[in-house]
Amino acid sequence: MEIEFESEGLQQTALGSIVGKVHYQFWVTQFPNDGWDDFVVVLANGWCIAPGGS
């Protein structure tokens, strides 16, 4: 599993959050879907601290 995001599309909100297009990649499947907009750093951090994350 990988987290994929478009670095050129990252934006910082007025409150300091980093948002952009991000999704989890499971072999040939994306979740939630390719092009999903969300909190990139929050998702990456959650994956890193989750049991079994790397």
What does this 3D model show about the protein?
- The chain is an alpha+beta fold and 54 residues long.
- It has one domain.
- 19% of the residues lie in helices and 39% in strands.
- It has 1 helix and 5 strands; from the N terminus they run βββββα.
- Strands 1, 2, 3, 4 and 5 form a 5-stranded antiparallel beta sheet that branches.
- Strand 2 and strand 3 form a beta hairpin.
- The longest helix is centred in the C-terminal third of the chain and has 10 residues.
- It is flat, with a radius of gyration of 11 Å.
- The protein starts with a strand and ends in a 5-residue tail after the last helix.
- The mean pLDDT is 83.
Secondary structure layout:
Layout: E1 2-5, E2 11-12, E3 18-26, E4 29-31, E5 37-39, H1 40-49
What keywords describe this structure?
54 residues; alpha+beta; five-stranded antiparallel sheet; 1 helix; 5 strands; 19% helix; flat
Give a concise summary.
Helix content is 19%, strand content 39%. The protein is an alpha+beta fold and 54 residues long. It has one domain (2-49).
